[in-house]
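To: structure desk
From: M.T.
Subject: fold request, one chain
Message: Could you run this one when you get a chance? Sequence is below, nothing fancy, just the single chain.
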Amino acid sequence: MNSTVHKDLIKFVEEDIPFHRFLGVKVLDVRPGYAKVCLPYREDFNGNEMRGVLHGGITALLVDICGAVALWTHFGPEDKTATIDMRVDYQRPAPFEDLVAEGDVRMLGNRIANVHIRVTSSSMPDTQIAEGRAVYYVKRAGAPS
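Reply: Done. Structure tokens follow.
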């Protein structure tokens, strides 16, 4: 991991956030402004079982998680972020398998950040299932309110 990324980031994402721990989120790669995150498949995520596709909300939550992790590569453990707005464009049905998302911070301002996220499945890493854009509020520790 790049030394400019907070050293406990992966542990924070995978173990210290109860919802991420419940989902089984795994960080595959991080570097400043970038994150690659895996959401392991669970039968509980199934949407339309006759079509063999995951629920769309699963894709959306992965977009938000990956966007936040990409943003957190610029922050320490005392800094705060919150999702302001998020858009997900679904391009293909997500199959019953692990999903992988990659996020890139496109803009990081004093209070607002923008992240672009792409989602694929583990068996088709070159085929995009969805893409998202998320806007986050950021507050660095010690910064005035």
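Reply (cont.): The two ends are 32 Å apart (CA to CA). Let me know if you need anything else for the meeting.
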